[in-house]
Amino acid sequence: MTRKLIPMAICYDFDGTLSPGNMQEYGFMDSLQTTPKKFWLKSNKYAQDNSADFNLAYMKRMIEEAHAKDVPFNKEAFCEYGKTVELYEGVESWFKRINKYGKEHGIDVKHYIISSGLKEIIECTSIGKNFECIFASAYIYDANGVPCWPANVVNYTSKTQYLFRINKGCCDINDNKTINAYVKESDRPVPFKNMIFIGDGETDIPAMKMVKVNGGHSIAVYNSAKKGKKDKAKHLIEEDRVNIIANADYSNNKTIDQYVKAVINKIEIDNQINNLEIKSL
Known about the structure:
Blueprint: E1 6-12, H1 28-32, H2 36-49, H3 54-68, H4 75-83, H5 91-104, E2 107-118, H6 119-123, E3 133-141, E4 147-152, H7 159-167, H8 176-180, E5 195-199, H9 205-213, E6 217-222, H10 229-238, E7 244-247, H11 255-279
Parallel strand pairs: 1-2, 1-5, 2-3, 5-6, 6-7
Antiparallel strand pairs: 3-4
Helix pairs in contact: 2-3, 5-11
């Protein structure tokens, strides 16, 4: 008889978490012949001048800059940009390795993206097919397949909504009935205590904290090659936002790998203890 696996979710930010840079900086900005610094300064100034969401502002700037310089800007182009996105050490082998370890311990590990970046780019990265759901910003396309309006935007506060969607097993962002329905925590498909959130910065803080206070585990990763990043991550520990900080290296037996495997072990043991307690009644 096949034993029923325990559900577990690992949720990731993308830029700075799985990749050392912002995804727009791979391919797209090269095609514009601009620098990330120039693009983000212009985009952020536009947001501030218009009291606009920073993510909506960058999505608008991408459209305008591409049109101004006659750069291809459609789903096909996004897919090509996605293929150029760099990843941190160990990310390529991470999913297969962790899934295998989970199954060996009776855990069904599923992976989710919750990112302010573009869904269309993430889907075409070398790791895009490993995710159960990709919750990210996206465009509406016209009849020619060209972006004309935002379809969805994910910012630092809305990231928490997607944690509840995972918790309730609801990947359809238009399904408001399931996400708002009352369901006892014990009856939800993925309990928060079986979740891990991995992020890198201030925009991940609400999601990190929410997972942690609900019994799950949060990891703040940092790029050890960049000065001051580890110190910023340390503040998240001091402020009780995360459980642990780690260099963004997903290789076997590095800190992230060890910690996630330890959480898998904990979920397995907690489940065994719970079953014994139920049997004793």
